[in-house]
Amino acid sequence: MRERAWYVTWTMALVVIFALATMISVDVYAQDKGKTKEGKTYISPTMGAKFVLIPAGTFTMGSLEERYEVPPHKVTISKPFYMQTTEVTQGQWKKVMGSNPSHFSSCGDDCPVEQVSYVDIPEFIKKLNEMEGTNKYRLPTEAQWEYSARSGEKQEKYAGTSSESDLGDYAWYARNSGKMTHPVGQKKPNRLGLYDMSGNVGEMVKDWSGRYYGGNSTDPQGPISGNSRVVRGGYFGHYEGGCRTSSRDSLSYGRSLYTGFRLVRMIHPDPDVDRSASGNEDGAVAAIPWEKNELVNHTMKLQYKILKSTKNMEGPDELYVFHDNGIAIIFLEGYVDLLRGVLYKWHIDPVGTLILKSKSGKGEISLKKISSKGDAIEVLTWGMPALATMIKHPPTIPWSREEIENNSLDLPTSSERIESYFFSDTGSGGVKLGSKAAIAPLAMRWDIDPFGTLIVTDGPDIVMRKISSKGNTIEVLRNGEPVVYDKIKVFSRWVYNLMTVLIYIVPILIVVIVVAVIIWLVDRKKRLLPPESK
Questions:
Q1: Cα torsion at 200, 201, 203, 208 (round to 10°)?
Q2: Residue 36: per-residue pLDDT
Q3: Per-run averaged pLDDT (10 residues), the chain, 534 residues
Q4: In three state form, how does the secondary structure of 289-307 look?
Q5: Are residues 70 and 199 in the same domain?
Q6: 285 lies in a domain?
Q7: H helix or E strand, kind and range, residue 10
Q8: pLDDT at 41
Q9: Are 11 and 149 in the same domain?
Q10: Do the domain assignments include residue 286?
């Protein structure tokens, strides 16, 4: 009886273990199937385009060969995704959009579509997603594109090979293209089964154009805004250097016969990434609204780093001087003689973005605040982050014409270099920048604007905001920093007019006198010669 009970107990235990093992196996299989349920390839039912599965992995992005490609840095692609094996063709574009914008339209439906902008491409993606009832199609990020072009972790120099002599087997480029596009998929693919990534047409990606900042990263998305999109891969007019998998270019609002694109199809939706799938790629990260009181009577010092070759070089700082009257002046620090100051009008728009418009109305700068800590503020301008230091300066005092007319402002200095401004009551004057031995000032015009700002024009505007005054000493805000001038009563209008006449007449008189003396001496010499020698 005991033997039978022992047998039954062990039998039941084995049944339970088998059942548990079966359940675990089924669950693991189901999870694995869920991860790869679409297989290693995918065919778009609308376009007929083939996509291949790109596995997750880590690679070194960038290179040391060009300054826009440095520094090389480790990037992890954390999730697998599908990438189109070829560039989007003219035939595929027509199936979705019903038209063909291509310059090389005679090449045929199997040739890559080009002459499409970053306004056209999101519209194409939006319509394709709607036609297939999904939100998974979008442009690849720059990191996804380079990772795929390098055959994942293989680090290929060109898409498919690292040998320059073999490039013609994998790409249509300057040495074999005949300066035109060709049907896709005719050359060899790289190890992931992707064609034409080093030639035929350049390929626009999702990222706004901006420099690399180094450091390891996972699934980078690039700058949150900008004025141009990154274009990757060689095109039919590039030579070997432009066909490298690390080579970078960009395209702004326009269209180019050198630029097309290819798509990715996401497996694991990412809300921040998939905004682009619906054609809305802007605003992935919310900016912090500016407050007026952090700008009024402040100078913003913007610091950039310019990369040249493999060396970090500090670029000239930009100085933005904000006044409570809605006027801002922008300077390049260290380049005062080249750019003395450009006048802008500034305001904060309804969503909190700082907008500066040039005096002519043709130029506009937008600065989004993306972080803030004390006086240190990180901003985004031209699609690139910059560190802004906010410097408080005193409120300005309006100038009066009486303290300017027929006066001069001299910047005291212990060196031989002086800076003097001479103001006539006619609105003209002179500025002398140089040594004390300078003969005469350069001509200029001056005026006081409705806000009490003194504006001197001798090419670029020199903008002077008065912040204090005591006797003949006047403290002026210029280039975002205070400068102390001595105010000296120098002349009345008739004296100034006389000086102006003398400036131009005296050199002429000197020349006339010299010529007259030479003529007199020659004539005198002739008179003194004996009669027989004449």
A1: 140
A2: 38
A3: 52 55 41 48 95 95 87 92 97 95 95 90 92 94 96 91 95 95 96 96 90 81 76 94 93 84 85 37 58 85 49 54 78 46 80 79 74 77 70 80 81 63 72 48 72 70 78 76 75 58 77 87 77 57
A4: CCCHHHCCCEEEEEECEEE
A5: yes
A6: no
A7: helix 2-35
A8: 93
A9: no
A10: no
Is there a single domain that holds both residue 198 and residue 304? no
Task: Tell whether 287 is covered by a domain.
Answer: no
**In contact, 180 and 107? CB cutoff 8 Å:** yes
**For 470-479, which contacts have Cβ atoms below 8 Å and span 24 or more sequence positions?**
474/403, 474/409, 476/409, 477/321, 477/393, 477/396, 478/341, 479/319, 479/321, 479/331, 479/333, 479/336, 479/340, 479/341
Contact partners, residue 199, CB within 8 Å, separation at least 6: 170, 171, 172, 173, 177, 187, 233, 234, 235, 236, 238, 243
Question: What is d(CA 391, CA 387) in angstroms, rounded to the nearest whole number?
Answer: 13
Residue 456 near residue 475, CB atoms below 8 Å: no
CA dihedral 22, 26, 29, 34 (to 10 degrees): -170
Which structural domain range is residue 529 located in? 495-533
- Tokens matching residue 533: 């020698």
Phi, psi angles (nearest 5°) of residue 306? -100, 130
The CATH number of the domain holding residue 426 is 2.40.128
Tell me the two tokens of residue 480: 């975002």
Rg (CA), the chain: 35
Neighbouring C-alpha atoms within 13 Å toward the C-beta of 339: 13
Nearest to 49 by CA among 119, 125, 106, 104: 125
Neighbours of 431 (CB within 10 A): 20
Residues linked to residue 228 through DSSP beta bridges, in sequence order? none
Residue 225 sits in a domain of what CATH number?
A: 3.90.1580.10
Tell which residue, 367, 368, 364, 356, has the closest CA to residue 328: 356
The continuous run of DSSP H or E covering 345 comes out as strand 342-348
Give the C-alpha separation, 93 to 230, whole Å.
Answer: 21
